[in-house]
Amino acid sequence: MSKIFLVLFKKADPDRIASCKLKAEKMMEILSPDHLTPSVKVEADASTCLFLFNDRKQVKYHEFSICTGTFIPLPDNWWELPEIPASASLFIKTDSNTCKVIVNNVAGRCTWYYSDSEQFIVSTSQRAIIAWLGSFQYNPQALSWMLATGNLGPGNSWDKRLQHVSAATTLEFDRHNWKLTKSRSPVSFVKVHQSKSKLKLSLEKILDNIFSEMKIEIPFTALTLSGGYDSRTVLYYMVKHGMLVPTVTWGLSSALHERGTDAYVADVLADEYGVPHRFYSTDFRMDFETVFERFLKSGEGRLDHINTFMDGFRMWKNLNDSGIRHIIRADEVFGWLPAQTEQDVRISLDLHKMEDNANMPPLKELELEEQYYPAEYLRMDNESLSTWRDRLYRQFRLPYVLTALHDLIQSYAEVINPFLHTDVIAFCNTIPDELRSQKKLYAEIVSKLLPSVPLARKASIPEQGAILRSSRIVSLMLNELNSEEARQLLGEKFLRWIPDHLFVDDDLVNKTNNTMGLWVKSAIPWKLKKIIRKDLVKYSGDFNQLAFRAVICTRMHRLLNQDANALNKNTAVNKMLIN
């Protein structure tokens, strides 16, 4: 998944081409993971520059037009299409008059933009834009949301000047009048009055049609396979249509031989379907500083989910080295977790406020800026709790949490998401609430696919909180929180409060979830869980996780300031820009 950077200049200047190429090479050095051979493709003329970092023929581009995420063949003149293709995640259409940026209905490819009187920039990388601008303007909202939720929150960049292209949005930039217009299609749920059996037949037909049109290069593509519903469904349809795609899964070495884990079930599924399968160990053995640095540089600090990458991205490098260029994932919109309260919805989507956790104080009590909660994310009049939940899943969780996971592997492989095809999303918006909760309609379809292989009951990777109890990691966090940068960003009150709440337990680092806890979760009926959640149990946050998020904030602040100065240190570039 190559990182994309496009800049349009108001004033044409043929002499700018050489300086753009020099800038691209310097940006390539800072954006590429330290264990990959960096590369950059450059297209440039007097008024436009396009950089593709670490691209290995994954991204379709023609001159300055780009299309990503496609898995259904495009017409030969795809750059002339008026709208984004149904299977694409991002479509940038550029000519001498306009630049049109279109993201799909769930913003499946995170895209940022910046505009001033001299240049218009579009990029899938915050770091690339900051490096190009040569300055960094800190956004306190990014810090507040990271502390509370582990993500940057709705629309936030680390730099307050950068804007996110939200789901179902089109930007149209008029190059002659130097004017930007923005339009957006609302998420609309329209219930169709059909029987459950007819709805199931309709969904099965849509999925079958999509996979019948799918065309991928098998030697250069892999499917991430778990023991759950979604990836096994993708595998079923791919095999049905003659695509024996290699599959991969990962986790602790011990999980591969433990019945009921994702790793164990994935291995059985691959064998049943007759596809090549490989398991990658993510046991925590490396120096954490190296792991953490790669995690921040690759993901740009958008998410705190480091537990999947404790091998230091070794798995992703191995896949890249072996020729894998496309990764198929099974992100979807079939439904989400049941909820009884608005707090349930916020917590489940990672869209909550700090005080939604009973053991956490409001940010203002720690003398930090409160989170800004956009009005469009509030529950509307006459909107059911389930509809609100699923609307926010499309508007927030997919664009700001799941795409942040994609960002982490952006330098290694291009992500393909068949279930985010326009037809699937449109159909799921017609499913009644009661058939979306717990993916009920979809689950009944999946239950018929290889019923002899049960769903996984246990994860193959440790919980985030367990990893962050490692004495090595706690020591690193405390050292970082003693830095001058931490004092400036987080303040004395937070820094005096957090250390007393940290725990150390090295026995949990390379262990998966507690089996009894999972048994209890699966054994208790949902109606009883609702009573327990409402009357007996309150949500609580993890203090080690909060400290880790604080460290992400300080490290990203430092990294982005370094990025801002990276090109300024390049004297060759500076001389050409001055001239």
Task: Give a structural overview.
- This protein has 579 residues and is α+β, with helices and mostly antiparallel strands.
- Helices cover 39% and strands 14% of the residues.
- It has a six-stranded antiparallel β-sheet, with helices on one face.
- A hairpin with a 3-residue loop joins β6 and β7 (98-103).
- It starts with a strand and ends with a helix.
- Residues 514-529 and 571-579 have low confidence and may be disordered.
SSE layout:
Elements (H helix, E strand, L loop, with lengths): L2 E7 L6 H16 L8 E5 L3 E6 L6 E3 L2 E4 L21 E5 L3 E6 L8 E4 L3 E5 L2 H8 L6 H10 L13 E2 L4 E6 L4 E6 L11 H18 L7 E4 L4 H12 L6 E5 L10 H12 L3 E5 L6 H12 L14 H8 L4 E3 L13 H7 L36 H24 L5 E3 L5 H7 L4 H4 L3 H7 L17 H4 L3 H11 L2 H14 L17 H9 L2 H11 L6 H24 L4 H8 L1
Helix pairs in contact: 1-20, 2-19, 3-19, 4-11, 4-13, 7-10, 15-19, 16-19
Distance from first to last alpha carbon: 35 Å
- Supply Rg: 23 Å
What's the overall average pLDDT, rounded?
92
Query: What structural class do you assign from the helix and strand content?
Result: alpha+beta
SS element count, helices: 20
Strand order of the largest sheet: 2-3-1-9-8-10
Proportion in β-strands:
5-15%
Shape descriptor: globular
DSSP helix fraction? 25-40%
Main sheet attributes: strand count, strand direction, barrel closure: 6 strands, antiparallel
Count of strand segments: 17
Low-confidence blocks of residues = 514-529, 571-579
